[in-house]
Amino acid sequence: MIDLAVFDMAGTTVDDRGAVYDALRWTVEAAGASVAADDLQRWMGTDKEEAIDALLRLGGVTPTRELVVERFDAFREHLVELYRHQPPTPMPGVPDALAVLRANGIRVALTTGFDDTVARIVLDALGWTVGQEAADTVDALVTTSAVSSGRPAPYMIHRAMELTGVRDVRRVLAAGDTIVDVRAAKNAGVIAVGVCSGALDRATLEAEPHDQVLESVAAVPELFGIAAPATH
Fold this sequence. Notes:
Blueprint: E1 4-8, E2 14-15, H1 19-29, H2 37-42, H3 48-58, H4 65-85, E3 89-90, H5 94-103, E4 107-111, H6 116-126, E5 140-142, H7 155-164, E6 172-176, H8 179-188, E7 191-195, H9 202-206, E8 212-214, H10 220-223
Parallel strand pairs: 1-4, 1-6, 4-5, 6-7, 7-8
Antiparallel strand pairs: 2-3
Helix pairs in contact: 1-3, 1-4, 3-4, 4-6
């Protein structure tokens, strides 16, 4: 059994229909950079300012600090507008999985490459709450605003452990739909799980050092013999 499950948001617990990909590509291309699909995928799941900096450079534009900040603000505004027209929804079976984990004494935290502002917009759109009460959706939320470096650094996972009072990395599972999610989990020393609910297929995730690859976060309770939640 584990004490804490740490889950990524977009593409893992939250279906945003590729809005993050669309917003990030638009943000960089609007600055005159070209965006290769492989480069975009490589930087998904990371801190968005770091991603913009890297994608501008890869696309032939010199990323000054002023430009990166300006483009990040534009990214955030564009993403919020996309979410306004097509709000994100929970991945199938995920709300039940979160609830059954917490009901069995396993704390649940969300981590994300978003900053606090965007993450809260997503949670509000879902009607999800963060807190220690039984009625809350998750126990903790960690964004890039809370750490010095995003994925694949392990800091968000370790910060989630701090917030939930969990000390043993061997009793923590972290799952996500991108390569950097899995790498962050490995760097953190926790159980590393890739999920196929995002843009990557099973073969791509399995090529990365990992402990498990699942179709969805909805299958996590089954790893520990907890009754599988109903999917809807």
